[in-house]
Amino acid sequence: MGRIEVKDLHFSYNKGEEILKGINLSFDKESTAIIGQNGAGKTTFVKLLKGLLKPDTGDILILGKNTKETTAAELAKYVGLVFQNPNDQIFKNKVLDEVMFGPLNIGQDHEEAEENSIKALEMVGCKDIYNKNPYDLSLSERKLISIASIIAMKPEIIIFDEPTIAQDYVGREKIKAIIKNLTENGKLVLTIIHDMDFVAESFERVIVFQNGKVLMDGNTKEVYSHADILYSAYLEPPHITQLCNKLGYKDTFLTVEEFIESKQSLRQK
């Protein structure tokens, strides 16, 4: 059994207008990106995983706990959500207090919460700003603080909502490294995202949502190799994948580095 099991999930906000229509998915270790156009059901799906919404029919099991029988507050120990906009998440006047809020709220004592918060800030590269006001920092730094505040809670599952929004190259690279670190340390990392290049660089599995259903589900290279299906869902493969397709390459390349390595390997032969 995976860490998350979704069984015949149906959900609607208004009677007769289903948003999610019979979703069956299992998540365990692979870092996973959920992609799809606006209105495909991605955000609703994440709210259901967090217990903020309850299924109309079907079940969601988080580490064996049915979300129908568990509160969102209880699930916060196991599932952390990093908001798209850090300004929607941050409200304390000191960085360390901000990061400690979540751990304290789920029952960690002060000493444990402080220790976990300092480790989380070090992990995201913010070890020298404990006493600063978050709103004196850049948007990119506030994003890192919001990530640290979730990591400090030590959930098994961490969900990123559009992690690259408003991030420059340096910020994207830092978040990419954090996702890699979390995955290597056994966390299940999920994201809902529109940035196809970042998905190709950072995630092992891709699930495509369309009109409340799963259109595709597979490893990242496999999903991005089906450009025709992606286009039917109003999505595009990563830029390097599109370029290589136009140049006539039959292989699917996810990153520039991967393409260069392939060419160098052929030359050595």
Automatic annotation (TrEMBL):
InterPro entries: AAA+_ATPase, ABC_transporter-like_ATP-bd, ABC_transpr_CbiO/EcfA_su, ECF_ABC_transporter_ATP-bd, P-loop_NTPase. Residues 4-236 form the ABC transporter domain. GO terms for cellular component: ATP-binding cassette (ABC) transporter complex. SMART domains: AAA. Keywords: ATP-binding, Cell membrane, Membrane, Nucleotide-binding, Translocase, Transport. GO terms for molecular function: ATP binding; ATP hydrolysis activity; ATPase-coupled transmembrane transporter activity. The keyword Oxidoreductase does not apply. Belongs to the ABC transporter superfamily. This is ABC transporter related. It comes from Thermoanaerobacterium thermosaccharolyticum (strain ATCC 7956 / DSM 571 / NCIMB 9385 / NCA 3814 / NCTC 13789 / WDCM 00135 / 2032).
